[in-house]
Structure formats: C-alpha cells, structure tokens
Amino acid sequence: MGVVAVKSTVVTNADATPATLNKLGLSGGAIKRSVGTVETTNGDDIGSTYRICRVHSSWYIDQVKLYSDDIGSTTIADFGLYRTAADGGAVVDADFFGSAVSLKDGAVAGTEIQHESAVYGVEDIEKPIWSALGLTSDPGVWYDVVATLTAAADAAGTISLRVTYVDNN
Fold it and tell me: Would you say 2 and 12 are in contact if contact means Cβ atoms under 8 Å apart?
C-alpha cells in the first residue's frame, strides 16, 4: 500500500476550477428538526406501529436521536420509514435507521440510532433519503418515521425521536 490523498465531495467541489457549489445538504445548510412522541401500552403486540415524526425524501438526515422510558422487560422495536397515510401507509424500509433496538434495558436518553441498522449506512451520509433508499430520482414524497415492535410491549411507556436534517433549501 502507498500513501494516498483522498478528498470528500465537498472538498473536491471547492478545489474545482471553477469551484462547484455544494448542495446545501452537504455544506452551508441550516440544521432543522422534526420531533414526535408516542405512548406504548402494556400488551401492544409484535407488529404494532408508532408513527412518530415526518421527513421528506429530499432531506439529508443529520441525526436520529431516540429517547424512551424503560419499557418493561420485552419491548424491542425497529425504526424505519413508511409512506404517509395519505400515500397508502405502506412500509418502505421498517429498519432503515434502527433494527431490534431495545426499549427494555433502561431508559434511553438521546441515543443516536441513525446508522444503528447499517441499512442507512455511514457511506450514505452525503445522500438525501431518496438516494440512500436506492431510488434513481427524488419522488418528492413525505415519509413517516415509525417504530415497529419486533417484541411485544409488556409495559406502558413513552418513545420520542428527534430527527435533525438539512432540507437543501
């Protein structure tokens, strides 16, 4: 192996002659957020869904932070993307952000789950959601960020998400 000199997209664009403007999702964009809170109930079964907040297909995701109570001794969930109710409500990728995330092993206080499942991998950090989903163009749609139980909830509790993003505007 030899010595290499590697540049990211934003550095390559800045070094170009003439310089290429970066998309605001990559450089210079303002961070915004979408947040939501839902409640589980003792007895919610596997497959139960909790629609927590909404994101747009064009957004660049900065963070997905999870907050929750210590919810019983069995509660586990995937965190992913579903179409909105107005768009049919179907699952797009149930564990896009997090897979089998424990909500039962103590309260969760702002744990980053953006890349927990590796579906939305670290290599996707420069991509808007539509591109990270493997689409060839932006469909211009909204998605719900949804927790889907993969193990039943045996207690009531609160789940909150704070998604920070850049919307490229």
Answer: no
Two structure tokens written together for 135: 């689409």
d(CA 6, CA 155): 50
Walk along the chain (169 residues) and give the pLDDT tens digit of each residue: 788 777 878 788 888 888 888 777 777 788 999 999 999 999 999 999 999 999 999 999 999 999 999 999 999 999 999 999 999 999 999 999 999 999 998 888 999 999 999 999 999 999 999 999 999 999 999 999 999 999 999 999 999 999 999 986 6
84 and 69 in a common domain? yes
Amino acid at 46: I
Is 93 exposed, middle or buried (CB count within 10 Å of its CB: 0-12, 13-18, 19+)?
A: middle
Give the residue carrying structure tokens 């702002």: 110
Residues of the domain holding 17: 1-30
Same domain? For 92 and 76 the reply is: yes
Query: CB–CB of 79/100 below 8 Å?
Result: no
Question: What sign results for the dihedral spanned by CA atoms 5, 168, 94, 75?
Answer: positive
Total domains, the chain? 2
- The answer to whether residues 23 and 65 belong to one domain is no
Output the six-digit token pair for 152. 């039943």
